[in-house]
Amino acid sequence: MPQSSQNTIVQMNSSIKLRQRVQTETSARDEPNVSLHPQWSTKRVPVRRNYSQNIYEVNKNENVGKVESEVFVDFVTANCQILTIPTKEEVEFFKCPDIPFPWDRVLGVRCYQTEVSKCPICLEGLTAPRMGKCGHIYCLPCIKYCIRDGGDFHKCAVCFKPIEMDDLRRVYIIPSAVPTVGDEVTFTLVRRAKQSIFPKAVHDTAKQHRFLSRFDLLDLAEQLTQIEGEIRALESYAKDYESYGSSMQAISAKSSIRKLKSEEKKVRCEIETLPPSDFTLDVESNNCYVYYQGKVVV
Length: 298
Hints:
This protein is α+β, with helices and mostly antiparallel strands. The chain has helices at about 5-30, 50-60, 65-80, 90-95, 140-150, 220-245, 245-275, and strands at about 80-85, 110-115, 130, 135-140, 170-175, 185-195, 200, 215, 290-295.
């Protein structure tokens, strides 16, 4: 083959390769979703983070665990009713709904539910229900076993958030119904002082009315009734496990019963010694709001 023909073929091959290379680069530029293998990548692109992620990282580094715990408590206060005995030092928590309420001041949680709740561990009805900061409700024996007898497993069985025995709060489950067209609704006249924390019924006939509010006063009589019911439920629980031959669960339940009986004596003493109070904070009785709140007749 003549030398000129060989040179022509080489030039044609070079032109074809160059054209293919230009087409490949153009298609890769036009298609933003094309991803190359790391070994062909000549430039590393830094990971982009939005502003909220950066703020969260800063807060997380400065206050480890504080941001998450406040989010949990906000979830509970938004979906349940916090029971507490207020003090004058905590007035700001009751005035501003955006301030996270300290969990160590929560004495109980009242939940209004339209369905029967079950423990996510044993899948049975709740026995002495308890709630953690995350808002999940368990049987006291079940969550106690997970925390104390589960080794290093000190986390919620549903969301795997950290949980300890000191974080558990008593749960008062109130069956309720969602009002529909045709339901009979009863309204109660209530009054609340302008600097007061909780509303009160105007007439004594509405003592059993539970008001819809973020916080409510812990009723010692209601607490005593709840403790007595928990003792009976745990005694039945321990008896059942003894008949099944499971002594560990029975021993744990009896330990909880002893603590509940000690708490029962303490509550009875408080009922006899503490004077009644409407928990108004230095206000005149005439300076108040008067309004109606409704309750569905089930």
